[in-house]
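User: Some background: our group keeps a shared notebook of sequences we're curious about, and every so often someone picks one and asks for a predicted structure to add to the entry. Today it's my turn. The entry only has the sequence so far, pasted here. Could you supply the structure so I can complete it?
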Amino acid sequence: MTKAKSDRLCRGALLVALAVSLTSILRAQQIPTNPTPSCVVTPAMFASWFQSGTPAVNGVVNPANSVTFPNTGNCSFYQWSEQMFLWLTSPAPSQYGGNGRVFDSPVFYDVSAADANGNRSFLPHVPGQLRFFNIRTSQAGPHGLPVIFDRTGRMLEVERPQVAPSGRPLIRNSAGSLVEVGRVTLGANRRPTFVDPAGRPIAPQMAPRTTAAAARTQKNPLTVQRFLVGGLPIFVDPFGNVLDVEEGQAGGGGALLAQNGSLIYYTTIVNDVYAYFLTGAKTGGITPAPTQFPTTQANLNQVTTYAGQFGVTFPDANALAIEVKAAWIETANLPNAGNYITTTATIPTYDKSNPNQWVPNGQTSAQLAMVGMHVVGSAAGHPEMIWATFEHVGNTPFATYQYINTSNQTITVNQNTAGTWLFSANGAAAPFNPEIAQAACGNINGVPPSISTCPAPPPTVKIVPGNAIRWKAWGASFDKSPNPLDASAAASNSEVISIHNTVTVPGGDIRNNYFMTGATWTIAGAAPTGQFNVVAGGNEVGTSFLANSTMETFQQGTSNTSGSGTNCFSCHTTNTTSVSHVYGALLPLTPGQLRSPR
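Assistant: Of course. Here's the predicted structure to add to the notebook entry:
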C-alpha cells in the first residue's frame, strides 16, 4: 500500500468516526464526506501548521503567514481561513501568556461597547479577570443602522425618527420644518397619512424621484424610517412609500434566542498588531498615517518599530491585523456543553417575569459556549481583509444546496430541519429567521411594537425563540456561482466542503465540532463593488453570500437564491481602515496599556 493511499484511508476512517460521534452527540448537521477534492490541505501541509510538526488533540497551531500569503485561486484563501481558526482556538502557549485559548489570551484585546460619545476602548485580557459580554443584536448596515429586507430581497437600513421633547417622532414637512407626528394611518393605496397632535394633516418632505431610480441600482441600501400604525410597524422610504417587508422583521435590534430560551451574547476582539497599528496611526507614532490595514512586510515593520518603543514584541506579527467576532450562549441548560469551546465572562441578567419584556436587573458570572466566529484579517494584496466564518455543527439546518462528488456528479442535498438544533425546532417550517425579540431601550422586548422612541410602548408579543436556517449553506446562492473560478454554485460549495474534510484534528479535538461555511474577499483587494454574478461589475468573490446564522441571522435574505441576501461587504463597503466598523470609534491604547501585557 502506498503512503498516499494509507493517508487517504486513515483520513477517511477519521471522518467516518467523527461523523458517527457527532451524529450520536448532536443528531444535527451532516456534512458530505465525498466532495470532489477541489480544495484540500495535504497531510504534510496540515502537519506544518502545528507547532510540534504533528497534528494532535489540543495541539497548538501557528497562524497563517499573512505577509507571504500566496493570493492564488480560491483555495489559498480557504486554507488561510482554516489555519487562522485553528490558531485562534488553540490552547494559548506560554508566549501568549498561557491563558485559555489564543483569542482569550493577553495578546488580544476586547473592544468595548460604544460610550455616550460613541467612543470605544481597548480592554486588555487580564488573566483571572472576567470580561463583560453584551447581548448579540442585529448587524448594522454600512451607515451603522439596523438592516431589514423588503419582499423583493432589497436590503434597507432603518433610521430611527428624531424625537420631540414630548416623545413623539418628528418628520420634515414640505417646507422643510420638523413637525411632531401624532398619528399615522394607511390609505387604500398603502400610502401613509401623517397627522400632527392637533389632528392637522402633514405634507411630508419628499426626496427627488430621480434619487429613487438611482437607489434601485446603487450598491448601498435605501434608508427608511419606521412608524407605528395600529400597533404594527410600517417602514416608509424617502418618497413616502410604505415598503412591504418580510414577515417577522421588526426593523433592527433583533436579539437572538436559542431554542432553550437562552440569549446569545457577543464579543469583538482584535490582536496586538491591530491595536498598535491603530494607536500609532491615530497618535502620530506611525507616519504618514496609514489609511489601510498592513499587508506588506514594510507596513508591518512600521508597527513593530512603533511597538518596540514601549518594549513590546508580537509573538506572531506575521498574522498581521486580526479582528474576531464571536457569538456565545450560556452552558447552563445546554445539552452536550462539553462539545463547545467555552470561556467564563460576566453577562447581564434580566427579570423575566413579564413574558413580553425582560428588564435588566444586574449581572452574573457564567460559563459560555461559543456558537459562531468571524475570522477577519489583512493579508498580502488584501487591505479589504479576508472574511471567514465558522459555526458549531449543532446550530441550524441548511436550506437546499448542491455539491459535486468524487464521481463528478452534482448532488442535491434537500432542506431538512429534522434533528436537534440550537436555533431551530425539530422539523421546523417557515417563516425562518424572524425577529421575535428586540434589544432596545435597555430591555429585551417582544416585537412588534416598533422601538422608535424610549421609553418604548409596552410590548404585546411574547418573547419566544424563532426558527433559524442557513439560507446559503456554504456561502453561495443556489442559482449562481459566487466567484469567477467556479462554473457553478455546486463547484464552489465543493471547495469549502472538501477543505473541511481535510482539516480534522485527531483525537476528538473539540475544534472539530466547528466548520467553516466560507470566506470572502475582493478581486485584487479593491474596494467592494457588489457581489460577483449578482451585481454588474461585482468584485466580491470567494463565497460571496457569506453570513453566519448566529451573527447575521436576520440579514441572510429570504431564500437560498441570489434574489436576496447579503455578503460581509454589503455592510463593510471599503478597503480602507473603515472596513472595520470599530476602527473609527476606537480610542488609542492608553499610556498604561502601551506595554507588553504578558
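Suggested note for the entry: The chain has two domains: 94-136+263-433+468-593, 149-228. DSSP finds eight helices and 27 strands in the chain.
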